[in-house]
Amino acid sequence: MNLEIRNIIEIWPKWKILQIIENSSSGTVYKACKEETEYTAWAAIKVIRIPKDESELRVRKQEGMDDISIQYYYQNVIWEFLNKIRVMELLKPLNNIVRIEECYIKRRENRPEWYIYIRMELLEGLLSYIERKPLSVEEIVKLGIDICEALKICEAHNIIHGDIKPDNIFVDQFGTFKLGDFGIGKRMENSQTKLYQKETSMYVAPEFYRDGVVGKTAAIYALGIILHNLIGSGRFRFPFMPSYSQLATLNLKDQALYRQLNGKSASTLCGLGSTLEAVVAKACAPDPRIRYQTAQEFQRDLIQWRDFSANKIWEFPGNTLTKCISFGQMRIEEDSVSGNNPGQIMDSALAQSRDMIGNPMPKNTVSGAKIAIWIATGFCVLVLCFFADILY
Question: Protein kinase domain: from which residue to which, for each copy (predicted)?
Fold first, then answer.
């Protein structure tokens, strides 16, 4: 029995560890249960070690820190974790936020080493959920609506999540998508590999690299990129690749990251035949002025698409909408250079798309009129023949 499990049993003696759910750079997650008289309670227990390992301590010493400085450094890290856990406890009653039940911090004797134990509701991670059950477009939109609900709560409490990515999205047994972590699983920069940094940087808004500031629309950008990836390929790969048909290579990922950091638009989604392309394009626009300014606006358009899609009352002639979106994206790039207001252009493209949904093109109007005329003509002929038989 390792140290982590011994500590869990000591902290929560009624809980039994069943298995390891996840073991990653952000910590280890255990599946646990508690037997009661009439029911069995389930939980996930996340264990985060600070520092991650001995090599991290060596790095601190190479930076010139002595034992007292190292202890002070990691105590500040602990306080940062505690503040983020308090945020999640504040949001515990809400349906689209991962529920934190208890948290406990234990320091190892005579060593600058801490263990954070977090007991939370048992959920399935989005990545494993997709491997088991690929998402339909309707389910992807539901994911967007659910996470927007969580972001609306964050906005109401003036909270910036700062780490929206697939690893921090979870699914319960009823298919409800929930937002978790709030930076709890973030490690110091030297405790992650460059490859991992590159994999997660695709969800970071370009203005962070340019200005070093995470604005209020950064979470909307990250969610837009997640939806873009799922709709475009069903998997999480860089949306700035030259083509989804190409195999992902390290060189292509470098090119994709370069495009993102330089404020290029994500690759175009094709074949949806609905406003969903325009909605996603606006959410993950490189210019924060073009994006949805609130999660409520983003959620509104996703709900509108869902409702019209469910009722199947929209029709689009040919490829009009795709041309409309492509035109809007072209104008955005041009206007971001000329200095005009690019947000109005994307809003115009969305407005045209909404008009097309609200006023669907009639199908086969001409052929229907012809059929009506033929029926009326045939009826008149039958009437004339009937009276002709009577008279003669």
Answer: 15-303
Which among 259, 245, 295, 288 is positioned nearest to 96, based on CA atoms? Answer: 295
Q: Are strands 114-120 and 100-107 parallel, antiparallel or unpaired?
A: antiparallel
pLDDT in tens, 6-23: 999 999 999 999 999 988
Contacts for 181 with CB less than 8 Å, ≥ 6 apart: 98, 163, 167, 168
**Phi, psi of 348, rounded to the nearest 5 degrees:** -65, -40
- Give strand pairing partners of 118: 46, 103
Please state, as a whole number, how many other Cβ atoms lie within 10 Å of the Cβ of residue 339: 7
Which string of b and e fits 14-34 if b means at least 16 CB within 10 Å? ebebeeebbeeebbbbbbbee
Do 385 and 237 lie in one domain? The reply is no
**For residue 179, what are the β-bridge partners?**
97, 169
Q: What mean pLDDT comes out for the span 345-360?
A: 49
* Interval 269-321: pLDDT, tens: 544 556 788 899 899 888 898 899 999 999 999 999 999 876 654 443 333 33
- Residue 105 and residue 240 in one domain: no
C-alpha 43/C-alpha 36 separation (Å) is 14
Q: Which pLDDT value is given to residue 392?
A: 56
Q: Which of 44, 39, 54, 52 is nearest to 22 (CA)?
A: 44
Single-letter amino acid code for the residue at 267: S
Number of other residues whose CB lies within 10 A of the CB of residue 288: 19
Return the SS3 of 16: strand
Q: Are residues 36 and 173 in the same domain?
A: no
What's the CATH number where 25 sits?
3.30.200.20
Per the structure, the complete domain to which residue 376 belongs is given by 366-392
* 231 and 279 Cβ atoms separated by less than 8 Å: no
d(CA 203, CA 335): 24
- CA 70 to each of CA 59, 64, 113, 207, 241: distance values in angstroms, whole numbers, following the listed order: 10, 10, 10, 32, 42
CB atoms within 10 A of CB 279: 24
Specify whether 144 is located in the same domain as 170: yes
Nearest to 284 by CA among 348, 329, 314: 329
